[in-house]
User: What shape does this take?
Amino acid sequence: MPGHSLNEPDRDLDASHMTSTRDPADGHVTVLLHEAVLALNPMAGGIYIDATFGGGGHTAHLLRHEPPVREVVAIDADLDATVRSDRLRTIPGNVDRLRIVHRNFRDLASVVANEGLGPADGVLLDLGLSSYQLDEDKRGFSFRFDAPLDMRYDQSAGATAGQLVNHESEEELARIFWSLGEERQSRRIASAIVRTREQSPIETTGQLASLIERTVGRRPGSAIHPATRSFQALRIEVNHELDALAEVLPAAVAALAPGGRLVTIAFHSLEDRIVKRFIESQSRTCVCPPAQPVCTCDTIPGLRRIGKPVRASAEEVGANPRSRSAIMRVAERLDANGRVASRGSSL
Ligand SMILES: C[S@@+](CC[C@H](N)C(=O)[O-])C[C@H]1O[C@@H](n2cnc3c(N)ncnc32)[C@H](O)[C@@H]1O
Assistant: This one.
């Protein structure tokens, strides 16, 4: 595994590695495309849930898999992403094999019930935001454009980043910047925001980015914009990303058939920690106190971990810097007795 910290800011928001001429039509470069689809272990006639459709890269690869899977149910909270799914209708043999659902994946249990889905053979979570969202000037995810501070994946619901910035208490803003962005100057930034908004509201990405830059300055020699961590923190808070992840994981396991695979790709250490701990807790065969000499708990594990965490290769990172912080984890649903369900494996 490459030796860099998982705690670095999400490089999606670091404009330094991107050319400003990048055309939104370039779309999203899927991270760990082959690795994730291989890890899902696609079965002929299988049902797969891509809970983060985005640009549809993983879904398209699944739909092209031979022998063919039966269906991919693709979910995205962003209506723009689901609209893009039309492009995938042209994949040969894909007339009826793609179902698109505009929902938050935290509602996975009700999506499964409403759509009448049978047990799934794989669930994929490729977390965070897509390049489409980052490159769409009006969405307010990036300070490369001066746009209203929105940052919601689902623009039909919830508070915008602007509402948080202009109405949250100074303490709460400092907590957001510190705990979700690991921003060491969180208090100074929160204080500067509150002083500024007393004069007039902070309405755009450009206003917020330059306020942060004026407050903390640029670190000498650093290519990372000083607002990077704060923008990342706001995005995670606006979309309740950590809560949604904690909610979808048990729902994903419940949606899986025995032998089905859960594949996650995280870009932030807090997300990865939630996934890691969840898989560990679901894989436990005993939860008795450590001092107890004999196990009496009869715990039946629900999952087994498959392989080690996977990082993007140096080649992929070279071609797509966004993949640098990605970490993929894979687990397999066990049967009702906590045993491995027999089916072939590609990983
Ligand atoms: C990294 S992109 C996925 C890219 C995709 N795998 C591809 O190959 O194009 C993440 C997508 O997940 C969506 N998303 C993030 N959090 C979500 C949530 N809680 N519920 C539903 N969709 C979510 C975002 O809107 C975004 O489109």
Summary: Residues 1-25 have pLDDT under 50 and may be disordered.
